[in-house]
UniProtKB/TrEMBL annotation:
Positions of transmembrane segments: 430-447
UniProt entry tagged with the keyword ATP-binding: no
UniProt name for this protein: OLC1v1020492C1
Signal peptide bounds: 1-24
InterPro entries, sorted: Stress_up-reg_Nod19
Key words of the record: Membrane, Signal, Transmembrane, Transmembrane helix
Length: 471
């Protein structure tokens, strides 16, 4: 298990003992018709050919107050503000997670861990996070939903909410084996111990334990490349919290999760994170010696009980190079979401050939994809195994809203939302009569939606080719 991820709680305690802060800077802030955007830069980090940055920055910039985040987009840029292509700096992953810092000095514990709703909260606590697919993966949370943060009622008394950013990037300029470097093959990094000093198992061929901070992947003999400064640029789009917004829970599933339901355990819902052993990464064996009729597809799956269900409003998978798609299934075998990688075909940032530059996302019609409490869900991750791969991942992110809030949004909330949207999308010159028409349409739409929900509509629309490209 990668110690840098698995030891989230330990890490949080350690970094808070450090002196000083690592705040990111605000590059720009803007607001248009109630929708706000804050653009931040991480602290500067340096990379040279073959080098690795896997750093954690705490107390980073993030919007203050009681808000609903609508999207979170990010990319690596250079000191001139230019987007850096993946074939120069491979973005293995980036993660953003909250924590709570005590206000004022006391002899009591200074920090409390935050994190999402599970189920791998001990290893995958982030609310936001992607990898090479960052630039072309849609992160927008559809109306009337939002990711709620800064709610005073949910922040521990005497604490304030803060944020941590983890950036894992690999400089592949002049790499002896570019794919091998991005897959963290141990022989290319010439390491025999992980970042904690523990000796690596001889059978551990590659993964996060070999490409930790300040390691270096093998480059071609004689290759010269300058050390350069880089930043993680991230854009948070949000609105002030309003009663018409429906909060969502964030779940991240891991196909390597070794949790199993215990028949001897009274609480077998899977809610206890100590029963989940999310390994984060795994290897794909080559099918080169397989039967000639083999499809050369490596399939890995896991079934997990979701303690608290609701209405799914968004879904997306995370895979590495070689991935050919992932799916999430309900207990009855229905497809809740299918997410496929988009491979680049050029050289420019966001379209780098051979790299996954985006993942298709799922936006079900409101109320159409329902997950019952304690329903068993199955995650399936598929990779092309024509060649072997090390350190691959098979994660699945979903956003879920409560049944009572998402399926029975009252008329007044619908009207408030329509008014807000009208304010956001229409210029001041539109007449009051036009706004009345918009509101009337909104009420009719709300009524229609309730009728559809009463008819227990099933199924979903898999939205593809709809992406937000990082600026």
């Amino acid at each position: 298990m990668p110690n840098g991820l698995k030891g989230w709680l330990t890490f949080l305690a350690i970094i808070m003992l450090s002196v000083g802060t690592c705040q990111s800077s605000v590059a720009d802030e803007m607001e248009e018709n109630g929708v706000k955007k804050a653009v931040y830069l991480s602290p500067r980090f340096e990379l040279e050919p073959g080098s690795v940055c896997n750093k954690f920055y705490y107390d980073i910039g993030f919007p203050k107050g009681h808000i609903a985040v609508k999207s979170f987009d990010a990319e690596v840029i250079d000191e001139a503000g230019n987007s850096v292509p993946l074939h120069e700096t491979y973005l293995h992953h980036w993660l953003v997670v909250n924590y709570y810092q005590r206000q004022g000095g006391t002899d009591k514990p200074d920090t409390k861990a935050g994190g999402n709703d599970g189920l791998c909260s001990n290893a995958l606590p982030q609310f936001f996070g992607l990898g090479s697919e960052t630039r072309k993966t849609n992160t927008y949370v559809p109306d009337p939903y939002g990711m709620e943060f800064g709610n005073p009622a949910k922040i521990p008394s005497g604490y304030e909410e803060r944020w941590i950013l983890n950036v894992h990037a690999i400089d592949t300029r002049g790499a002896h084996d570019e794919l091998g470097c991005t897959e963290c093959r141990c022989d290319l990094y010439n390491v025999t111990m992980d970042e904690t000093g523990s000796v690596l198992d001889p059978n551990y061929a590659g993964g996060l334990r070999c490409c930790y901070d300040n390691t270096r992947c093998r480059v071609k003999e004689g290759f010269q490349g300058a050390k350069r400064g880089l930043f993680m640029k991230y854009i948070v789009t949000y609105v002030d919290w309003h009663s018409s917004i429906v909060p969502v829970r964030v779940y991240i599933f891991d196909v390597t999760d070794e949790w199993r339901k215990s028949v001897d355990d009274d609480d077998s819902t899977g809610s206890n994170s100590s029963r989940h052993d999310c390994r984060i990464e795994y290897n794909v064996e080559s099918c080169a010696h397989a039967d000639e009729n083999s499809s050369c597809i490596d399939t890995k799956s896991v079934s997990i009980i979701l303690p608290t269900g609701g209405v799914m409003v968004y879904g997306v998978a995370h895979q590495h190079t070689g991935g050919i798609g992932s799916a999430l299934y309900g207990q009855d075998g229905r497809v809740l979401c299918s997410s496929s990688p988009i491979y680049g075909q050029g050289t420019e940032p966001g379209n780098e050939a051979g790299y996954i530059v985006g993942m298709s996302t799922c936006y079900p019609p409101p109320g159409s994809v329902k997950i019952s409490d304690r329903e068993t869900l199955t995650v399936v991750s598929n990779y092309n195994s024509a060649q072997g791969h090390t350190g691959v991942m098979g994660l699945f992110y979903i956003l879920v809203a409560d049944f009572n809030s998402s399926s029975t949004v009252n008329i007044s909330s619908q009207v408030q939302l329509v008014r807000l949207q009208a304010k956001m999308l229409t210029p001041p010159r539109i007449s009051g009569m036009a706004l009345l028409v918009i509101a009337t349409v909104g009420i009719a739409a709300a009524a229609h939606q309730r009728r559809k929900q009463r008819e227990n509509i099933s199924g979903y629309d898999n939205i593809v080719d709809s992406f937000i490209v990082g600026n």
